[in-house]
Amino acid sequence: MLIEKKGGRSCREDRQLAVALAGSAGNLNVLALGAFGLFPSNMTGNATQLSTEVLEWDKSQMWRLIQLIICFIAGAFTSRALVAAGKFFQIRTVYAHILLAEGVILTVPVVISLWLPFSPDQRLLVDGLGFLLGLHNATSTQLTQGKVRSTHITGTLTDAGISMANLLLQPLIKHSEEERRRYRYLLSIHLTAICSFFTGGLIGIFSFHLFSMLAFSLSGILLILVASVSIFRAVRYQRRFSLSARTAV
Fold first, then answer.
1. For residue 70, which of 101, 31, 40 has the smallest C-alpha distance?
2. Which one, of 194, 139, 142, 233, lies nearest residue 19 by Cα?
3. CB neighbours of 172 closer than 8 A, spacing ≥ 6?
4. pLDDT score, position 241
5. Cβ-based burial of 43 (10 A; exposed 0-12, middle 13-18, buried ≥19)
6. Count of other CB atoms within 10 angstroms of residue 184
7. What is the mean pLDDT of residues 1-29?
8. Contact call for residues 97 and 227 (beta carbons, < 8 A)
9. Do the beta carbons of residue 84 and residue 205 sit within 8 Å?
10. Residues near 90 by beta carbon (within 8 Å), at least 6 away in sequence
């Protein structure tokens, strides 16, 4: 699911990715809303609010929003740099390793806080979440060539509407059979991502009420599991391939 394949990705793999990544993004967004009162990946809303703060010249709030936007961009930049490095060094599991690191960053501080009580600055936590969600969204976007944008539900809804229109208006537009198959494929992925984001949000609401800040580790554990399974399968496949090559020789 997290491996880029030369022969292309199947619809099933992209749907699985949408479930895992859009679901965890929805979960993190709702948890951030409950804990900090904002959505760290809602760059449209943050940019809109920034315009308002500029008019009112609220410097502290302006800088706060600018800082969050910069952190999100930095996360996306980091993801692209890591993916480029992974491709250069031919590391097929680079996407899985990025998400594994994200899961560890989300989980470890929560686990440590169980034994070592500490209260990190709230701004640092929000900026960190913004960075991780930028990393998260850019990783899924690159892996699926833009079909799955885990945190960008506005764009996903737009793409779903376009695909739906292309299918329903077939008598007028007259797409080829291959194009119709592609639009059905895209629509299924977009709807899966939307439903997963919504479901992740619901889980986030209940988990925050039950576990408070500890609930952030749920998304981290999910990412660790998904990434670890992908890495394990890739390593096992590589070992089998190497063994078959030696046997053939």
1. 40
2. 194
3. none
4. 67
5. buried
6. 14
7. 83
8. yes
9. no
10. none
